[in-house]
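Notebook, p. 212. Picked up where the previous page left off. The plan for this session was modest: take the two constructs that came back from the sequencing core last week, fold each one, and keep the raw output in the notebook itself so nobody has to go hunting through shared drives later. Recording the first one now, exactly as returned: residue sequence, then the structure token string.
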Amino acid sequence: MRTNHEIDYKIYGEEMQYVEVELDPGETAVAESGSFMMMDDGIQMETIFGDGARPQTGFFGKLMSAGKRILTGESLFMTAFSNVGQGKKKVSFASPYPGKIIPLDLMEMGGKLICQKDSFLCAAKGVSVGIEFQRKLGTGLFGGEGFIMQKLEGDGMAFVHAGGHVFERILQPGELLRVDTGCIVAYTQTIDYDIQFVGGIKNTLFGGEGLFFATLRGPGKVWIQTLPISRLAGRILQYGGPGGRREEGSILGGLGNVLDGDGW
């Protein structure tokens, strides 16, 4: 039996999606600040510390729980949307950049999921949004995006957002997958996660992809994204930043810009 609020939902759109959550009277959904799109009359919106998963916790406990979110780059506050009216009401949350919204039933995943620190969008009330430190030395020193991640705990529905195309990969016991740290959206708690060094002098000098990548060993399920927001932001800065346009990874480089009329 679920202890979290049970919510129905529907996802709309292709590249710029939004999720419509249907709440029965008394049900609540919680969401990241800035993800709200629209809601029916009869839904009450309230800003709360943290995720509201443990309403019995005292003020100091709430403050400590919310403060952990700073480590993942998120706001201290979340927003709760409660159906205080009669009948079913709907509230919608939009994705912040092109990609896909992934619905995740935590009850089917053993009550815990680990995800990229900026991927959480919204969830049924009762789902706890915390932080997950990767305790291995390699991830701490070299992990970059993969060192501090979010953990979602509970038995309700949660929704995360990822960039570009998203696909699932089921790893068998002992099966190993090497992934760019930014391309990992989420994985189940049974997955063994580590950081591996990319050896070789040519990789070190000319690799362009970074010297480290994540290793994921099964059993478990992994969600992979093709366009991490960090990669998208970096490419935009290359084209529009103070240094002007650059063709990273292109043999032509600046010469190609001259030939197509864009200057160096």
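Okay, moving on. Second construct, recorded in the same format:
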Amino acid sequence: MSVVKNYLSLIKFSHTIFAMPFALIGFSLGIYKLATINLDLSQDIGIEDLLNRNPWVLLLLVVLCMVFARSAAMAFNRYLDRQFDAKNPRTAIREIPAGILKADSVLLFTIFCGVAFVATTWFINPLCFYLSPVALVVVLGYSYTKRFTALCHLVLGVGLSLAPIGAYLAVTGVFDWLPLLFSFTVICWVSGFDIIYALQDEEFDKNNQLHSIPAALGKVRALIVSRSLHMLSAGFVIGAGLLGDFTFIYWIGVAVFVGMLVYQHSIVKPTDLRRVNIAFMTANGIASVVFAVFVIADIFFG
């Protein structure tokens, strides 16, 4: 149990709270889409096999994909950044620099999770299986981006944005605009709050030739970029609400989501970073979970 606890700490399992709710939104949209398709029409468009699948088994597979992909990405990030983490007082307590876990063991864990992710997609549908290496390249590739571009925050956002569209593909096997709008929401939302989190390492990044928006623009302008991204994120959830013709239940979720975006910018100032962790974890955790609850409630009961 001690080893399990160390690996859960390594991959920050609690941060699953960010992307998992959006994956459940994508999954729910897919289930609703299939449920509303005419059974006679389904034979013409070749999805009769999808209609006959057990949704609970499919949900389990989607959750496993999320866990494996995210675990591989986080473990690889910790493995690749271990030397930088050892130099940074804020991150020196992490498992590898602190000697709690060996670097080689973390690399093996990364490989296992990556293989498990691809293997799990095999049991979902051919499209997800064929796209799984692309998804892995995106989520693992993020770990390199801070070495050469300040746009690393956007790459992280793209990685997490695969959750809603990936879950929708797992159910339906096709792309659609509504889950894509939720993916765009995640890109801007995650990129924005990752910039806020990176404010803590502005000086360290500059001194160690690492790239980030705060290191490139300074705290004041970085917060302006973050605020702009969060405004775009709010725009996408509003656009999704209009496109999906949701009821008032959805809009309550939107109000909470946007409210949490406003709240985190109200408590983080360029000269006061004491509440960055509250903005990062608490505000965004509430935003994702509450928003997902209302969206899913609207999908099935609205």
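Notes on construct two before I forget. The longest helix spans residues 55-80.
Flagging for discussion at group meeting.
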